[in-house]
Every structure is written in C-alpha cells, then in structure tokens.
Amino acid sequence: ADFRATHRIGARRDHSGRHRQLPRIGHMTTTYLWLKALHIIGVVCWFAGLFYLPRLFVYHTMAHDEQSRNRFTTMEEKLYRLIMRPSMIVAVVFGLWMLVLAWDALADRIWLWLKLFGVVALLGYHHYCGRLIRDLAANEDSHSERFLRFFNEVPVVLLIALVILVVVKPF
C-alpha cells in the first residue's frame, strides 16, 4: 500500500469530516522537487550568512584600529552583497514558486501563515543587517557589543521555529 495513503500524510478532513488527500502535483512532481531543492539550498546559504554576519558586527565593534575596522567592513559588505542577498533571492523566489503551485492545498493552513510571518521577520532582519553594515562603515556604532551578541541569536530562534512549523506542522 502507498505509505502516504495508509498513514494519512498530507491528508486533511473535508467538510464531511472524511480524510482526503491533498492534490498531487502529477506531472509537476519533478519540477516541484527541483524547486524545493533549490529553495532549501538558498535557505541554507542565506542562514549561513545570517548566522555569521552579526558575529562580524560584534568583532567589528571590538576593533579599535582603522585597519581592522576597514577589514571588517569589507568582509561584511562582501558577505551581504555576494552571498546573503543572492541566497535570500533564491530562497524567496523558489519558495514563492512552490507556494503558487500548492496554494489551493495550503492556503488555509495556519502553520503556513506563521511561516510566512517568520519569513517576513527574516527579511526585516536581513535588511536591518544591511543598515548596520552602513552604520559601522561610517563609524556610527549605535549598538553595544552586548546588543549585537543578543542580535546574533535572532536567526537561530527563527530557524528553530520555522523548521518546526514546516516539518511538524503543529497547526
């Protein structure tokens, strides 16, 4: 028997209370799996940057000589521009593409709306990091080292929440 059917994976109740399978993507299965793979690659690369960049901010604020500060500015700008921004675009584009393909099956899922809220929060965090890069490059350190150490943990919390929402689908 089909594992998916016997274990009700992807099933939900219709108005009569009976389980029904989410619509299969049919000929789009291979396409959808490629989209998912590319989305995951984008997310992994984006999070690598989201984890590392705030740590660079901490080191940048601890540096007192001009040469070190310039080196951190260069590292931060390259990480943001060459790795984080393209990875974010890949993650968002392929995530939205998958969402469009599966919208009818997912539109009423609470976990999806919570995930989308988390993604919007990540986008805000990402762009705030861009602002911090500009501020630090201009020697306008508006945040303490302690703040930046806590700021560094935000993507960890969001990642944990998003993975649980997507894998467990508790709502």
Question: Oligomerization state of this entry?
Answer: single chain
Helical content, roughly? over 70%
Structural category is mainly alpha
Order of helices and strands: HEEHHHHH
Strand content: under 5%
Mean pLDDT: 87
Radius of gyration: 20 Å
Distance between the termini: 28 Å
Features:
single chain; 171 residues; two-stranded antiparallel sheet; 2 strands; 75% helix; elongated
Task: Summarize this structure briefly.
This protein has 171 residues and is mostly helical. It is 75% helix and 4% strand.
Fold and architecture overview:
The chain has 171 residues and is mainly alpha-helical. It is built from six helices and two strands, in the order αββααααα. A two-stranded antiparallel sheet has the order 1-2. Strand 1 (11-13) and strand 2 form a beta hairpin. The radius of gyration is 20 Å and the shape is elongated. The chain starts with a helix and ends with a helix. Mean pLDDT is 87; it is low at 1-9.
